[in-house]
Structures are given as C-alpha cells and as structure tokens.
Amino acid sequence: MVSTPGRISTRMVFSAFLVLGALSGFFLGNLRSVRAAEVLSAKTPAQTTSLIVVVDDLSAVAPIVQAAWLLKHSPQGEAAWQPVYPAPLASQSAYALPHEAIYWDANQHSSLGGLATLAPLQQAALAFDESLVIDEIGLGTLLGTALALPSTAAEPQAALQAQVQVLQSLCAASWHNEQLDQFVGLMPEHLRSSLNVFAWITRWDRWVADGQPIQCRHPWAS
C-alpha cells in the first residue's frame, strides 16, 4: 500500500518515541553523574593556597611589610607554611640579607590586588587563591599578647626566626569557635582580606576543630 503524502505512519511515530526515550535516558544518566561528581567535590575540597602578609601598622599610609608567607592547606587539614619574605639564607635571595624597607601603599591597593606587585612577591612569581594582610596589633590579638617583630629589612634572619615562633604558637594554640568573632572583629582596622566574612566562616569550619591545635609543618626547614 502506498502511504498518502503529508501523513505520518503509526510506525514512524512509535519509532520517534523510542529514539526520544533513549536520548532522554542518556542525558539524564549523564546529568546524575555530573551532579554526583559535584557533590563529591563539595565534600572533598581541593587544596587552597593563601598569601599571608604581615605589616607593622595597617593604619599607616604606607605600612612596612614585615613578612609574607604562603599557606597551603590540604583537604586532610594540614597547613604547610612557606616563607616568601624574608627569604631563608639557603635561597641566596637578596631578601635573605639586610636591605631597604619595603612599603605597601594600603590606600592605593585597598582591594589587595597590589600585593602581587610587591618586589619580593613579584620576584617569586607566586600563585595563590586568596590573600590576607594583618598588622602586628592584629597578630598580637590572636596570640593574646603584645607583639613587636624584629625589623625584617635590618635583620631578616632574626625576623624569620621570630616569625616561625609566632606561627608555632598560633598552630599549637587550642582554637575555639568563639575566636572566630575575635578574628572577624579585626577587620578592617587590623586585618584585610580578599575573602568576605561569610567565606572566612566556611574556611574556619574547614580549618579549625573546636578546642584543637592546627596541624602545621614547615617543609622548607627540613
């Protein structure tokens, strides 16, 4: 029998539904796989690299840079610290020896974007996910004691030793969730960050176990 032009046979309609059903199953299956991967990724966050810069006084027009460290925080909760400024003697960097003081124009770089242009950081060609600037008052507040770091420009190695001691004290402390309020309270007078407060709450929950020290290590010193 010859089909009438302009009409679609029942067999063609049935076949079309079969093809559409197969395609729908394929795409829905892929969508579920992608969603499952997203959920798994959210449960196991990747390593984050933070740039931590310490200055003498954030209220100054051009604070003196005292320290710059990279913090690599693994999904397992381990914090690995790497000094950028001052440099260890073994690096043979000019910033391992006495040098001219380095200033950060906090007003010009209020967004923290200018941190990467600081000479020691530019020389190191750093890659980091987020940045934080804290002054000596802010750091002392977190430590619970007044803090006066040696001049990094005049005594870089003495300054590096003092900074390692500060980090060891911070890592060994018993951190409690109430200290998050203290941390946030330092903003913006004594602490500035590329992350907003809500992002820091998420970081805090991931990095700090209530009442426990932070697992820190210094691979550069081994």
SSE blueprint:
Layout: H1 10-43, E1 48-55, E2 65-73, E3 78-85, H2 119-124, E4 130-135, H3 136-143, H4 156-172, H5 179-185, E5 191-193, H6 197-207, E6 215-217
Question: Could you please describe the fold and organization of this structure?
Answer:
By secondary structure, the chain is an alpha/beta fold. It is 37% helix and 17% strand. It has helices at 10-43, 119-124, 136-143, 156-172, 179-185, 197-207, and strands spanning 48-55, 65-73, 78-85, 130-135, 191-193, 215-217. It has a six-stranded mixed sheet with strand order 5-4-1-2-3-6. The longest helix has 34 residues, at 10-43. The radius of gyration is 27 Å and the shape is globular. It starts with 9 loop residues before the first helix and ends in a 5-residue tail after the last strand. The model is unreliable at 1-5 and 10-44 (pLDDT under 50).
What's the gist of this structure?
This protein has helices at 10-43, 119-124, 136-143, 156-172, 179-185, 197-207, and strands spanning 48-55, 65-73, 78-85, 130-135, 191-193, 215-217.
Radius of gyration, whole Å = 27 Å
Number of helices: 6
Strand % is 15-25%
Structural class estimated from helices and strands: alpha/beta
Helix-strand topology string:
HEEEHEHHHEHE
> What's the total count of β strands?
6
What helical percentage do the residues reach? 25-40%
Which residues form runs of ≥5 with pLDDT under 50? Answer: 1-5, 10-44
**Amino- and carboxy-terminal Cα gap:** 88 Å
Mean pLDDT: 79
| Largest sheet: spatial strand order | 5-4-1-2-3-6
* Main beta sheet strand tally, sense and closure: 6 strands, mixed
The gross shape turns out to be globular
